[in-house]
Amino acid sequence: MPLDGSGRSEKLLQLAKRIRLENRNQNPDANVTVSNSRAHESQSAAEPIERNRAAVLICLFEDESGDLRVILTRRSSKLSSHSGEVALPGGKRGENDSDDAATALREAHEEIGLDPSMVEIVAALEPFHTRINIAVVPVIGVIWDKTAFEPTLNAAEVESVFDAPLEMFLKDENRRQEEQEWKGHKYFRHFFDHRIENETYVIWALTAGILIKVASVVYQRPPSFEERRPPFWSIRN
């Protein structure tokens, strides 16, 4: 893959530049001003914590073939909620988080040992709202040297860490769907089956929806299937 003078992928550099510019133009008030070094700074007293806000990190990297991949986790089977499910690193906003990027970086560090200094934050997308009114903000970041990342798992929260090709979330291969209904509105719940050696990871629900959105932004095209999103994902209270 072509590299710049600092050893970083030219493809990733251009991608990060484009997404950052597009995000700034579309969301001038986006809460993603954090830099890597500010990830653990205290929040200003003038910025009250939103208890119903969370953030997840979509950490992208380029593999040896030049394809983009995203880091994912499987939640611990001992957790009381969503146990054993595939997820993106992330969680609820903490008292000392300065913004959404800080939340995503902190959670990724706590869950899988990803050093915030290894990640360059690119953009924060519009939040997805859950049925219980949690606003989940997808924060896109880039890791320039994936080989330098040695996962350290928090066994209480994470069972395993793996990666998947980002483009798979725009394809109809290894995908299935279930029709659901909410307040008279019908929508699809998507399931993506990702096999690694003898293990199959099922990526579904909100995680799948976020990755469909991110893949659409990155590759600048819609998915090859009908998405039909849940109406509550875009509700703002």
TrEMBL record:
GO terms for biological process: acyl-CoA metabolic process; coenzyme A biosynthetic process; coenzyme A catabolic process. GO terms for molecular function: coenzyme A diphosphatase activity; guanosine-3',5'-bis(diphosphate) 3'-diphosphatase activity; metal ion binding. Keywords: Hydrolase, Magnesium, Manganese, Metal-binding. Residues 22-47 are annotated as: Disordered. It holds the Pfam family NUDIX. Its cofactor is Mn(2+); Mg(2+). Residues 24-45 have a biased composition (Polar residues). GO terms for cellular component: cytoplasm. Residues 51-192 form the Nudix hydrolase domain. This is Nudix hydrolase domain-containing protein. It comes from Salvia splendens.
